[in-house]
Amino acid sequence: MKFRIKTAAGALLVVGVLGVLATSCSTGLERTVLLGRNPDGDAGLTPAFTPPELDGGETDAGNELTMYCPSDKCPAGRTTCSTSRFRCDVDLKNDQRNCGACGAACPAQNTHEFYECAEGRCLLYCREDWADCDGIPDNGCETSISTNDNCGACGATCTDPAKPCVRRSLGDYQCGCEVGKLKCVGGCQDVTGDDKNCGACRNVCPSTVDGGPAPYDYMYYGCVDSQCDRLKCVPYRANCDGVDSNGCEVDLLSSDNCGACGVVCPPGQACRPDQRGAPQCMCPAGTTFCMGMCVDLASDPANCGACGLACPSGPSGGSSAVAVCEFGICGRQCIVGTADCNGNEKDGCEVNTNNDPNNCGGCGVTCNAVAGQACVGGTCVVEPCPPGETPVEVPK
Amino acid sequence: MRLVLWIVGAGIAACSAAGVGGGEYGDDPEDASMPTPTPEVEAGPDVGPTELDASACTDCEYFPETCSADVLCPNGPFDANSSESLDVRTSIESIRGRSSKDVWVVGALGAIAHFDGVVWKRSDAETQDTLMNLWLRESSEVALGGFGQVYARGVEIVDGGASPSIDGWAPYSPTYVAGQKLTDARVVGVWAAPGSEWLWCAAQTSSTSTTTSATAGLWRLRQRPSTPFEGNVAVATSVCRQNACTQMTSVHGASADELWAVGIEGSIVRVNDAESASPSVRGFNSQTLNALNGVWSASASEAWAVGVAGTIRHYTGDPARWDIVSNVPTSVDLNAVWGTSPSDVWVVGDRGVVLHYDGNGWSRVKIAGIGQDRPDLKTVWSAAPGHPWIGGRGVVLSLGGKP
Known about the structure:
heterodimer, A: about 400 residues, mainly beta, three-stranded mixed sheet, B: about 400 residues
């Protein structure tokens, strides 16, 4: 099996190295070149490059024309460090290893916290269950927020012994469980209908009742409304007519009562248990039932052309190629900023088109209008022309 | 003020402010080992007609407008005016036949079609599975893409089995030796010599690993009356780990007992005693680590293998090594090879590349009537000398478009 590698971003508009770029700047600077802005200003701007107006029309009254010439300098916020592979390939605003300056790496992540470089500063982020309550960055996220002293937040205390700090759901710590639930082994349990925790933790209901009548079809004695010894339906059955004598007469895995009384599956779909075992009408047109899910065999990389057959993720050793499924056939795409220039799937998307001046924005697109011209964000670097210097087109 | 737009090039503004950017240049960090761009024009399916101007079409000489006898032309189940047409997005993954009047194709998302010598007709197996392989038996047809389910016509329906489709196809779940079912493996290539019992399967799992964690890449399937299909590992996993046959892509033999199989990372193994209970394998030196996608054997002493980046290898009887074929007139990935004799060998690859070997050298074969499309071609089979059938994304081709 072979996998064609494609570039996700598609070919850039710029396909040659032309030496000049002209744009209006007096009022429209923010619409022209944004990537190279000073990290001390323009916070929040997304690195981007917007070409000048291409309509060849006239500028607004009062606007001046700025000519751009090829440059051998780095744009604002970019630099070249000793570990650089390409000129200007370090983004000091967002590089974890060079955050604000070459070699200024953000602290390594650990079980309580992690750091991200934003606008040239390492920002502290606490993981779930932890918080930076003392405000001292050096000790990170030092406080657990799953205790009675700090339940869900710094200083949120649980004083009622009957309502200790419990985890109601992912990341949700509260004093005591929701109404109808008790804190049992494994967390908050619904004790209103749980045969093993009926009305109280570990109160197990017997499935038969001494001296009681035998349960009707598809019924047994269990927990209902927090009380044992009540008749109820076995899993996947329901007493839709409300008459006990005919038991739980309805199969909840049938197309006429899928998961609940009266739920009818649309034509072409069948009632099947989903991944959690819950009956669902499956599958909508264009999808195929596969291990409890409805998947699109035409586009799902985990089930490409057949249930359970995944597309290989990429060459061993890491790659910027990602698996894709195109009309039932596996392939690979290069993530934005990379490309497969040699056509060999063994090394995946081997070229960094964001920074490689020999493949800037695309295979074979070179930045050589002046010596040392860098490639940043897939575009060759230019700067306003020095006074008196006329931009000169550089042939491809 | 009138804006005079200079030629706009690849540009991003540099910062001339001191302290940012410049001033830290050491030796130029750009190394000199940049990959060489592939010289082929990128004209795959991403490129629409409007993006291909005349100056960019460096391969136009291979894609004439008019069909002629020595040019490949469309002749297949893709016809926008026909209700029998397959979806043009369909990739034909395998094309095989018993004769020029009995040709089958299978492909993506359950695509099946048959040519009776006059017309192509779709055949519905009522599945969305991508079918990558065909096994044409004397009185039955089998299509498969994975080991979990195969689709067959002319095979007895077992008790409790699904009823056949309107075109006679029914799904079958092969039985395997306990613990051997490869549910996550794709059957990439198959081969069964005429009259042989076993269908040899080249298999590849979603993991690209060829290390100790990998499983065998060579399996066998056979058809039996009691349990219609049963399979097993043809070569033990431990043996395949030692002989680099864990991730295989193609298998073919000039006889039922001696086969060649190829795989990723340039693997080539020869299988002996292929019909016996205990086939043996031996690895050969392919002189490449490029993935090999197809193999075809002309005789016990001659075979061809093709792979990525224009790789072609030729076996001429050496006890341990395949020969490098130089001067291949393309650098695209080559996907399949087939022939009728040592002087009539066909190779197909990406971007509409077709090569022919006439016993002396390889030459590029033209394709007419496909406009600016450059489909990846996946499969080739030849009914007779000079009569190849070629399939790929949205096309089936024959020389002169003749049946």
